[in-house]
Amino acid sequence: MTPAARTDPGRVGPVLDPAPVAGSLSGLVPGLGPDGRPRTDAPLVAVTGVTGYIGGRLVPELLAAGYRVRAVARRPERLRARPWHDDVETARADAAELDEIRAALTGADIAYYLIHSLGTGRSFEARDRHTARVFARAAREAGVRRIVYLGGLAPAGEELSRHLASRAEVGEILLASGVPTTVLRAAVVLGSGSASFEMMRYLTERLPAMTVPRWVDNRIQPIAVRDVLRYLVGSAAMPTEVNRGFDIGGPEVLTYRQMMQRYAAVAGLRRRVIVGVGVLTPRLSSLWVSLVTPVPAGLARPLVESLVHEVVCDEHDIAALVPDPPGGLVGFDLAVRLALQRVHEAAVTTRWSSAAVPGAPSDPLPTDPDWAGGSLYVDTRRVQVEASPAALWRVVESVGGEHGWYSWPLAWWARGLADRLVGGPGLRRGRRDPHRLLVDDAVDFWRVEEVVPGRLLRLRAEMRLPGLAWLELSVEPGSGAWTDPPAVFAQRALFHPHGLAGHLYWWAVSPFHGLVFGGMQRNIARAARTAERARTDRPAAGR
Q: Which residues form the NAD(P)-binding domain (predicted)?
């Protein structure tokens, strides 16, 4: 079932309103019980990579199809803010640890392998190989009936990029596991929040004229993310004798140049001037992409290297097992419109930045204040704000991204640029939603570690640092009432140095804390007061 269009008098053109993909898979999927939930005897599906872009979207689709779902993650607590959290089982496991992942897969009928080490450094092939072998053995020993894996589309008979070669190797390892396996091979995925889509989007929107590598004229068969999800859901019901890979792609074959021009037309932009040259290597291209788009060089390079190949489906055999939807697969223009609608409505459910930055700290702030004898530098600030706690919280929860950091923009820009130059995420990563945050969301070069709605936002630094850093922003009612002024705004910056370099770093930047954190405190308080006045003046204006 393709997305249905409905009319909205407040918008220009149709509004896309996609239903769950299970709607066009009747007869393949279990379907929901009378209470609108999966039946107790429905197949149990274990999903890895649930904190990632595809995994986070697949879980609700599987639930809507009537499957029981077990979400497997190294830190299941990161999932608690997901809207589907209470509808699934959770299991704590590292897929690279045999005992852990075998226990997590025990009792599951189908296992989705949505793990890869894209952009994690030079040894990513070895990590992918080891994890795939461990997962294959664990699935076999746990009695899993089918593995489903999403890999990359690659041309036959060519020397592949390291990224595509690794994805192909993982597929072969799983196919040889002894467990019937479905390997889906896709090229560029079109969807709000995907790294491939955002790379194309920002290149097209920010550069009305550009010089690009010659690979922009290579042919690509992109696919809408909802069609990827449909194939993933449908693959769970494949017959036992099926153990093979399938090419999956959308209904059109385009060059990257054509994709950018078509994107510009859908987005209402002027036709772009695109000049191809042969001197830009994948490395130089990825650096250029990282300067123009939010996608960092470490992630951009494998994406660019994959585009050096022509990636077009050689077959469409999957249609015999997962039939095409009645209205056909989603075309390029419709996929872009749907993605842009999600972006404009701040309804991007998952994003490429959902995955943590390689090498960034992942452990939460310890509760031991003495750090077992270690050093912990703290900068604490508190101020009373003539605004309600509710108004203040709305400002606090909106920090970062398009709203900025409420202090000395040049300093934040310079710190973000320095971080990009040394391989960090920088400030261009932005945020998934401009107003609401969930645990594990990326916010520029921070990661949300804790959210207590209305009271606490704790961010963990993912920038390149000689230590571990956190920033806490908290709101307290000054009068005991949530809706009445005043409120108390507290900030706490914490830094745990690593070695002498960490201590020197803290003492080098601490003189600027008054400008950065002090200014941030003042400006957030000012924005909250402004919001409070606007709220209280609104009824008077209407009288």
A: 49-177
Cα 378 to Cα 370: distance, rounded to the nearest angstrom = 12
Token readout for 409 is: 């923009």
Q: What is the SS3 assignment for 517?
A: helix
> How many angstroms separate the CA atoms of 334 and 332, rounded?
6
Helices (H), 106-239: 124-142, 162-175, 195-206, 225-235
Distance separating alpha carbons of residues 62 and 66, to the nearest angstrom: 6
- Classify domain 377-535 at the CATH class level: alpha beta
Of 466, 446, 477, 459, nearest to 506 by C-alpha is 466
- The rounded distance, in Å, linking the Cα atoms of 431 and 193 is 10
Alpha helices per DSSP H over 67-123: 98-105
- Length of the chain equals 543
**pLDDT digit string, tens, across residues 376-420:** 888 999 999 999 999 999 999 999 988 889 988 888 888 888 887
3-state secondary structure of 408: coil
SS3 readout for 443-494: ECCEEEEEEECCCEEEEEECCCCCEEEEEEEEEEECCCCCCCCCEEEEEEEE
User: CB within 8 A of 434, min separation 6: which ones?
Assistant: 346, 398, 401, 402, 403
Tens of pLDDT, residues 231-280: 999 999 999 999 999 999 999 999 989 999 999 999 898 998 988 776 66
| Inter-CA distances, 350 with 192, 323, 331, 402, 464, Å | 8, 27, 21, 18, 24
Which one, of 315, 80, 270, lies nearest residue 71 by Cα? Answer: 80
CATH number of the structural domain 21-347: 3.40.50.720
Q: Would you give the DSSP letter of residue 431?
A: B
Give the number of other CB atoms < 10 A from CB of residue 504: 12
In angstroms, the CA 212 to CA 319 distance is 36
Contacts of 99 (CB under 8 A, 6+ apart): none
Residues of the chain with CATH 3.40.50.720: 21-347
